[in-house]
Hints:
By secondary structure, this protein is mainly alpha-helical. It has one domain (2-270). Helix content is 75%, strand content 1%. The protein has helices at residues 2-16, 23-33, 40-49, 51-61, 63-66, 79-110, 113-133, 149-161, 169-179, 184-210, 216-243, 250-270; strands at 69-70, 76-77. A hairpin with a 5-residue loop joins strand 1 and strand 2. It is globular, with a radius of gyration of 19 Å.
Amino acid sequence: xxxxxxxxxxxxxxxxxxxxxxxxxHMILAExxxxxxxxxxxxEMFRVVIQLGAIMAVIVLYWNKLFPFSxxxxxxxxxxxxxxxxxxxxxxxxxxxxxxxxxxxxxxxxYNYITVAITLIVYGVLFIVMENRNKWKxxxxxxxxxxxxxxxLLIGAFQVLALIPGTSRSGxxxxxxxxxxxxxxxxxxxxxxxxxxxxxxxxxxxxLKFGFAFSQLELIILLTGMVVAFAVSVFAIRxxxxxxxxxxxxxxxxxxxxxxxxxxxxxLAVR
Length: 271
């Protein structure tokens, strides 16, 4: 039964990690209905480390755009990809500087349904307002070559907002990127790349905190969730990139608002 629950949570993670609708908001709701018979310490680690499965989908799908080495005629570095990685690492700095020392405090203060509901609704409204404002605006950053270090640091600053549960890491970074002039495709793709060091770092911290002494059941549950999250993420990423070629993000904004209201009404009813 616990493995079935891990599969369901993996599906939720795989879908919501990449769409700008908040994986945390969905996880809080899911945990109300899918209560795993595991320790609180394991679940705290599981919620984060399951994201490693999701991030592997980005690495697999975008391997040719992410691997910076060429082995034709010896070993050489692909300068454009190396430059992209420097930009990705630069964009992680703001969240790392704030998230690393305050990770536990942020979870303690903000991992609750009230915060999640508020951030779901607020950022849902922002997506709608932004898309209405930018309806006829032409994007001036349509390639990673045009994404300068000032721009990536601003995107990184927006990622800091995602430390608050319910914001959505992809939602905050995509919103920030579009606001500074990125096309939807560049905003979404850069958000995917930015997730790689962020998720690996967050997962490592949680693993070190939990320790590596897994029971057999814990290891099976963790690996099941990661594998399912990986498989579902492949489809979610492909869907999002296909969707935004013809559509804007307003539908996600409306979805966030509705979900935020559902979260409030549900928890008011049961408490």
